[in-house]
Design a protein that fits this description.
alpha/beta; 9 helices; 6-stranded parallel beta sheet; Rossmann fold
């Protein structure tokens, strides 16, 4: 069975996708057979692959893994209905689809689905992750939104953490403001059994101001026992014009240089 890591953001746009693909290439470079898993994926920037249509974020994570993209990597897709913000189409394994209401642009109201529909989604996610785990050393799972979002039934974050043995990384985005408050609030709202899965946190998108960074780290450390794994720099402006392979290597190098992942993940 694979080792499982889940990258959890304390908000949407916290940098989960960037950290996920960075970790995928980092671990692949270490010689591990790695794949990525995104149980429920909003298709926003669509790309046609040989295997199937997906979103650019998952495509790049799979390139980082040096692994083929299959249905197993993303069993549930959500596509917007003509850019409407209140409803979308949920698709299970490319075979069954139905409308779903949205709490926010990227937060599906799973709780409004029928018992049968929820069962099918759960069964699909569980089945695909089990099958993947039989063929890889490591699966890097990208969470969705915030794991403590209220008012929605969580089938990406809590469901997987309760069904599988998963190590959780929390990611907060420094450049968005309120990084410490967002992380502290999220961690405090996690159920106790979920808090136990958290192996540490990453401060993402650092631009400038080491003294402010130390202040944020100190505040978090004084209020929680969470391990500080490191600070991931804002390097997008430096790499965005590079070919994808070069981007991925630069991102992996940033993990190597800035994130203390080896001493906190047993199998590395």
């Amino acid at each position: 069975m694979s080792e499982l890591i889940m990258v959890q953001g304390v908000s949407s746009n916290s940098g989960k996708s960037v950290i996920t693909k960075s970790l995928c290439r980092y671990f692949s470079n270490k010689g591990l057979k790695v794949t990525s898993f995104k149980p429920i994926l909003f298709i926003e920037d669509e790309i046609e692959c040989t295997e199937r249509t997906t979103d650019i974020r998952l495509y790049e994570s799979m390139q980082a893994c040096r692994a083929p993209l299959t249905l197993l990597n993303n069993p549930i897709q959500i596509k917007f209905n003509n850019k409407q913000i209140s409803t979308a189409r949920l698709i299970i394994e490319d075979t069954e689809e139905f409308d779903i209401d949205l709490f926010g642009r990227d937060t599906p109201l799973i709780n409004r689905l029928s018992t049968d529909q929820i069962f099918k989604i759960k069964n699909s996610i569980k089945k695909c992750l089990i099958e993947l785990s039989e063929n890889y050393d490591l699966i890097v799972i990208e969470g969705a939104g915030n794991p403590t979002d209220l008012g929605t039934l969580d089938l990406t974050n809590y469901f997987i953490l309760k069904e599988f043995d998963v190590k959780t990384l929390l990611v907060t985005k420094l450049s968005a403001g309120g990084a410490a408050a967002s992380l502290l609030g999220t961690y405090s709202l996690l159920e106790k059994e979920i808090q136990k899965t958290v192996i540490g946190y990453i401060l993402n998108d650092f631009i400038n101001g080491e003294e402010k960074l130390l202040e944020i780290e100190g505040k978090i450390s004084s209020l929680t026992k969470l391990k500080y794994l490191g600070c991931f720099p804002h390097i997008w402006n430096e790499i965005k014009t590079l070919p994808l392979e070069e981007q991925l290597e630069r991102l992996a190098n940033s993990i190597e240089t800035n994130i203390n992942i080896q001493r906190n993940v047993e199998f590395v």
